[in-house]
Write a structure and sequence with these properties.
The chain has 105 residues and is an alpha+beta fold. It has one domain. β9, α2 and β10 form a beta-alpha-beta unit. The chain is globular, with a radius of gyration of 15 Å.
Length: 105
Amino acid sequence: MKLDSAGEAKRYVELLAMESAGEIRNLRVHTPTKLMCGDRPILIRSERYKVGRHAVYTDDFRYEERGPDGWALVVEDFKGWDMPEARFRRAVFEAMTGIPVRLTR
């Protein structure tokens, strides 16, 4: 597995410790989600992809966190630098799924 930065690697180690302690479970890294508008794919067209390629949001971490009402899914993005395209993809993901993305630094 390749992590994108030293900060992301540090966060991964923290999450592994939390998983070992039973605070979180089902830790996954870099889970892709194809972005949709209703039942239609969001396509990114370019010279290379005339018909378009499916836009994808890839989170950094996805896990279940223990809370007062049981286990809840958390989608987390580690950001040292937040680019406009990343903010847009997160916004589409949140609108599609109803799951807020937790930002960590």
